[in-house]
Amino acid sequence: MQELKKRKEEVKVAKEQKVKAIVRTYYIIEGGKIKLKNKKCSKCGSIMAHHMKPYERWACGKCGYTEFIGGSKKR
Length: 75
Ligand SMILES: [Zn+2]
Fold this sequence. Notes:
Blueprint: H1 2-17, E1 27-30, E2 33-36, E3 49-51, E4 57-59, E5 66-68
Antiparallel strand pairs: 1-2, 3-4, 4-5
GO cellular component, one term: ribosome
Family: Belongs to the eukaryotic ribosomal protein eS31 family.
Subunit structure: Part of the 30S ribosomal subunit.
């Protein structure tokens, strides 16, 4: 939960400072707003869903493929 809050704050700060490409290519900066860019599954090619909990990730509803977004990988 704290991780999520922290992440949102990071985005907010980045937006204020007008920093480009915080999270690689998954976001598009458009008119000062950060938009999520839908990602296609690399396994079956269908549109993936973006989830913030418990970790920020892309998940495919068809084949179950999940791709974690940077910074979420912990061991
Ligand atoms: Zn898939």
